[in-house]
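Researcher: Structure for this, please.
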Amino acid sequence: MLILRIRQAETALADGRLDEAYELARADDVRAHRRGQGLVGRLVRSLVSRSRDHLAAGRLGEALADCEKAQRLGGSLPEIASLRAAISRAMSDEHRSRRRRAGIMTAAREHVENGRLSVGERLLGDVDGESGKATALRNEAAARRQTADAALRRAEAAIDEQDWDTAIDALAEAGRAHAANDRVAAMSARLTKLVNQQIRQAVEQGRLDRADLLIRRVQPLSGRTIETRELGRILEQCHLAREYVEQGHVPRAVEILEQLGAIVPDAGWIQDALDSARQTTEGLGRLRGGPLGLLGPAPPEVSDVSAATVPPPKAAAQTQAGVGQVNGAGRLPGRFMIHVDGVGSYLVLRERQVTIGPAGSSHGPELALMAESGLPPATIERVDDDYFLSSSGQVRVNDRPTKRKLLANGDKIALSRRCRVRFSLPHAASTSAVLDLSGTRLPQGDARRVILLDRNIVVGPGPSSHIRADQLAGPIVLSIRDGRLFCGGNEPVTVDDRAMDRMTGVPMDAQVRVGPVSFVVTSA
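Model: Predicted structure, token format:
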């Protein structure tokens, strides 16, 4: 039987069936036989030769398998050791090449998804053309380019027809598809200039309602240009003057109208409003100086009331309940929570500078996280419209070590191996930022999103909201004025099933309902 198996192995080897010959020759009794030893020597040489052929053809797995078979039969011969080292180097090179291709694909996809199509396509040029993922990404880039071109054609036609809404929507679509397209930037600048002219004209004509609508539409597109900011401030001052008039603080309204008259000298309605406001001030002075003034302590003359003694809009006299309490609506603390039913809880921080650190740290961070005690303290500071991250130790932003960085929308901050924070500016017209927590949480509850508040918070459908509530048909805006929270939008607002007091705003610890959404504001 032994000689028969040796003959079978020799026949298999002669016919090139090396794997069959190997299975027969690996038996101990075959390898111990003198004739079997000759067979093993020839088989080892054949396996080494085939392994080299596999290696040359790039079939590294097959090359390694043959090399290991030869080593089991022939031991650690020099030629086998040399072959195994060559296979290991080739496999290491292949691994690095795969990692490089994966990195290129990841970077290319990020560029394409962010509208930088040309950059993504250039990166894809370094990836094998037969790659299915690369081909799919190339097709996606081509489709985005076509979408952007079609949207630009619609925008151009809408601009020619002065259909600003359609033009803005079409340009926004083109920007999402191909943000780096020079035509998108050029047409956005052109449209912004034209719409700003319409806004200024509407302000001069007294059509503040139309100007308000246009400024809201163009702000996400304009990139907060200087002209758009100036027009936005003009409209803010108009709103402020109106609120002072509603509150009966006419002298303050006069001050604002005089400033507006200098900024917009061609707006004739401002002078008419000034004349009416001055007449009202004079009339109030005569009333207070007449018999009605004898009924109680004489109030100060209207002309002597200074800006410092007049409460700002939406603020009323303090009640006996204590300073800062107005009809149940108190001034907001520096940090508070917003609990939105069916959506989640959000910690809101109002300070320009926020330190981040582990809970229980002696530094007393404003944003305390449930994280390891060795977490390096970091600071996020808002300077004008920008946010800067700084840290005494090394942190990683987008997988790159740094101690200070100007933060951009979408930046991923790794404070430690597990504790990660994603920074975002969801709404183009708001400088309030959002921090999404990953691998950590806040000590006081299950909130994993922190809002760094600068003037307003957008609550609404879609990813462009600070608080995403898809059940809303349109956005609502929570804004801070004079230390109180106010809610603006097209939906009716109720507090504990009663209409919200427009004079005092949103109170703490009360159930507030805006259309289909309800929330409670509590101290943190």
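Researcher: Any notable elements?
Model: The longest helix spans residues 78-113. The first strand starts at residue 325 and ends at 326.
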